[in-house]
Amino acid sequence: MIEEMRERLTRLIYERAFKYSEKPVFKLVSGALSNYYFNCKTVTLSPEGMYLIGHIIFDMISHLNVRGIGGLTLGADPISNAVAYTSYLKGKPLEAFTVRKKAKEHGTMQWIEGNINSGDSVVVVDDVITTGSSTIQAITRLKEVGVLVRKVVVLVDRQEGGRENILKFLGECGFPQELEAVVTRQEVMAIHKS
User: Fold this and answer.
1) Average pLDDT over residues 3-17
2) Can you give the pLDDT at residue 106?
């Protein structure tokens, strides 16, 4: 069942989120130009995408003893919300949280929103990793407030060094060096070439 869901999600990502050009015309967050681009919001914000993502990622992390799931806004938000919703349906509720890109400028002025606290263990998610900088930013903020990162799950790994950078950073933080991708660039490119 989960394997069929993963195949469907890969196809959905290819059909809705993947763009390709013979010339590198897509500007990435890093500033580099690429031949291909993933805009995963077209999948993560769709009803079918939420359903598939919620079930697949919950299955990937349900064995972990964690309190929450989240990451850097905006890419992580629909993913963590889908997984939190699914976790409740499955009888093992997880709190969704979001890490701001800059601290709230009023009220509590906090970086992290949600029901997690110092000492809690969490899973960090992201929609796409290239260099891993957004994921590392989220991990940094969580570590600063004493939240423990048990695992990182990414929807799409562009396979351009992000995985290695994140694993190295997790190790430097004293966190388990666990990262799993739901879909890789290689899997999407295989559909593109077929």
Assistant:
1) 98
2) 65
Fold of 2-193: Rossmann fold (3.40.50)
| Spacing of C-alpha 117 from chain mean position | 20
**Interval 145-154: pLDDT, tens:** 999 999 999 9
Neighbours of 173 (CB within 10 A): 16
DSSP summary character for residue 34: E
Q: Which helix (DSSP H) or strand (DSSP E) does residue 114 occupy? A: strand 112-114
Query: Where exactly are the structural domains of the chain?
Result: 2-193
Strands 36-38 and 112-114: unpaired
Q: Do 147 and 123 meet the contact criterion of CB atoms below 8 Å apart?
A: no
**Sequence-separated (6 or more) residues with CB below 8 Å from residue 38:** 13, 17, 18, 19, 127, 128, 156, 158, 188
Give pLDDT tens digits for 39-52.
Answer: 999 999 999 999 99
